[in-house]
Sequence to fold (736 residues):
Amino acid sequence: MAGKRTRKHSLVKRLDIHDVARHARVSIATVSRTINGVSTVDKELARRVWKAVRELNYFPNTHARALVSGRSRLLGLLVSEITNPFFPELVQGFEEVATQRGYEILIGSTNYDPERMKDCIRRMIERKVEGVAIMTFGIEGPLLEELAQRQIPMVFVDAAPQRALMSAIRVNYRQGIREGVQHLAVLGHRRIGFISGPLVQRSAEMRKAAFLESVREIGCDPPQEWVIEGDHTLEGGVAAMERMLQLPEIPTAVMCSNDMTAIGALRVLARSGIPVPEKMSVIGFDDIHLAEFVYPPLTTVRMARSSLAKAAVEALCCHVETPDQEPPRAVLAVSTSLTVRQSTSYAPSAGQEESATAINVGRSEKKQ
Amino acid sequence: MAGKRTRKHSLVKRLDIHDVARHARVSIATVSRTINGVSTVDKELARRVWKAVRELNYFPNTHARALVSGRSRLLGLLVSEITNPFFPELVQGFEEVATQRGYEILIGSTNYDPERMKDCIRRMIERKVEGVAIMTFGIEGPLLEELAQRQIPMVFVDAAPQRALMSAIRVNYRQGIREGVQHLAVLGHRRIGFISGPLVQRSAEMRKAAFLESVREIGCDPPQEWVIEGDHTLEGGVAAMERMLQLPEIPTAVMCSNDMTAIGALRVLARSGIPVPEKMSVIGFDDIHLAEFVYPPLTTVRMARSSLAKAAVEALCCHVETPDQEPPRAVLAVSTSLTVRQSTSYAPSAGQEESATAINVGRSEKKQ
DNA sequence: GGAGGCGTGGAAATCGTTTACACGCACCCC
DNA sequence: GGGGTGCGTGTAAACGATTTCCACGCCTCC
Fold:
């Protein structure tokens, strides 16, 4: 009359470890040990267990696991906004490495809204994440405190608070930016400007410093008004370039702190009838997906976001898996390098005609 | 000598429902009832409980909750690849609505790899998701079976298998595509081509059908060779447009099944020295973020991916929360509409000079 | 003053694992 | 042959909530 068992929530029996044990004619402890790879289990029994798992299509319940083992195998990833073209590649890399290591990821999009940040952190704490990668700016102290109190490891980009369980991934900005500047130098540019990001952000500050250093290295020292602060948005790039064009004297090349800024700058130049790269060269930073598709395709410094993600996951796992030994506080993990496309060419002062004919040097795409 | 309590996994005491109960001077039953919003709880006690929760910074353990209640409050989202510009907006919308409803989301990127799909599904089953939105193509029957067996609701785009717990979100392709075709008609185009997606995909097939219907509505009937099958990738768009340009007679406008295809087409036209929109108009579909930034900015049919996401979450929640009543199998939830940018203008046959002067009709951007 | 109703508290069962501990067994050595 | 030794297995107790059951206190009303 009644079913074999009565269940509270559903009519179908959900498989559990007991079913597997019964099917393999062993105890649940043996099943658990087998699944968790304990090496002392007898080969024959292990074989029987795996066979049963396969036949029954058994998947262990992670909630029960997490509850008893205290390990959720969940990592949090906090980004500014997933629709910002900077992030998808980061998310992809993060997911890839995390799932490889048996972790699941919880994504939180802050949209720069403190309220949402708080909400994201709450969700992550509730789900008992074992670590959080903080890839957004302007997160507030109290929220970090919330995580720190619960001994949740955190990883940041560029700079982390000096505390236990917090580490930082360092990006070698100088490398790629220097390449970019030298690329311009080779093309004859001596008058090079810079549109920075918001200088309250450590990473923006570091990019600017790398630029200034590199440009001095080639013997240039741009006047202050050629170094304009933007905000890493397209609109910021527009505003900055508009200001630059109103200067009595303008540079022949402009480097930007990120690609969105550069794209904004390109837009102003197009509107103003200044052809790129003939009259002005532009270099971006990040190499977002978009960079390849704007007009002209943007020469930019590529930052491997997938390796950033990889480093972040590894730093977190390192904290989690060897909690006793203090891991390195900062990992210099991410390199940058120049990707030459079509927004850079010879400096116009080197002679219009010459640059017009030699315009395809160092490029590949448009030739075909 | 020893701490107040011994814990297995960490030295710090993790807050418990008992701690809250003690702090609020009530029983754990009352705490549970309060947190879960049982209405019979005395106001004053509830106040005390919430106060204790706040003061102690208590977050209920979701794993314990999930275990006993059988509800994980987790939804799965399966996408092709997060770096495909089509998806971030979808993910964002999904996250937004899901978290609003108290769900967390698990993202799986299949990268079109059957092995990875399998892995994603496994992860979702292990985590006991309460529903899965399947936003990728080419998922295989056995995998769906795996989910269906476990009574996990699923939602698809355009078309779902005819089974219980499965539903589909319908997109009104016709609406936007018709707008696009009529826009071209107004500009004097009579010779209109189409680059479709891979016709094995239901959604590609529907877009093509909508195009053919709309174009017949304006009294045109394009020859077969003007309707070319692409594959929804940039490379596919390139190949298709190359084929089209080799025809003895080419159309004056081409509509594409998605934006990536259109961008590929634009690239070929640029290379071939065919100015867009002067010699040929191009319309895309989707309105991905990129569309605004290519050259010329792409006129395209916008599909509100955030509302698609919203509909998907709602369909899943509907299954979950009212499992008894059969929900509507298909929800016509997503509308489409034309976004005019700069890749469309008058048909060249209407007179070169005239179109050159009138070229800014219906646009805004480049004027400023 | 007793009946009835309402809401709280205590205790216990439950969810599906992991894991400490005990136990059985074979082996080996004196 | 008896008694360690060691290995592998099974039993049972956690883990942290929800949920149910029942008793009990308190208030109200007759």
Chain B touches chain A through 54 residues (CB under 8 Å).
